[in-house]
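Sample pair:
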Amino acid sequence: MECFSQLTQETLGYYVYLLINPFDNKIFYVGKGKGNRVFDHAKAVPFDWLKNEKFDIIRDIINKGQKVKYYVLRHGMTEKEAYLVESAFIDFLTFSDFSFIANISNIVAGHNQWDKGLKTAEEIELLYNCLLLDVENMPNKLLCINLNATYSSSADIYEITRRSWVLKPKKANLADFVVAEYKGIIRAIFKVNEKGWQKVESEDNAEYFKGKSKIRYYFEGEEVLDEEIQKLYLHKKLPQKQKGQNNPIQYFPVEFFSKIR
């Protein structure tokens, strides 16, 4: 089947659809739309300039003589309702604990994924019941790294925190601790070893450094498990960033680090 009849299109309203790979029966894409939107992806495959994981999967299916399987998850909705259903299902399928039922190629996470999306019970508690970091009375100096682009509940948080960042090592080495922050909340605390921040050798990371000219640094160390330190910083909410402040690196207290060039 390659299209809906005119009567079906007029009756469906907005709907959420699934694209299924016939070779493993796994969902590889979730979308929303109306009319014949569900069929548009396969029709666009001949345009070679369209390159992403979704189109690569569809091309592979077609080249092997098979067809994409189409399912409609829910229909008869308004556009706003379709957004909510789509985002909830994407959140579910992209959650690491449920990866065995899907191989999602969707690039964009579900709408309102952090505010309203799938979470563990512990993450729900953190979202609504975390205290603000007391930046006025901190006994330590912190280097804070934002992990919004790489964090997940199953990630090795040490590995994704420790490399590779554009920063000033002289400034970074003055921090007592490095804290990993995701969506404004501190998720882990690390102590950098005596070697301090070290330059990443680009020849060892050719693919990562492709197109990147700035020098990047990493650290080696260990997670801080001391209860007194954790009580001060772990699961605390950071002050809201100023508008336009996109640097993933922040220093606290700001007054101390602002003097360092």
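Strands lie at 14-21, 26-33, 69-77, 142-146, 177-182, 185-192, 198-199, 217-218, 221-223, 249-252.
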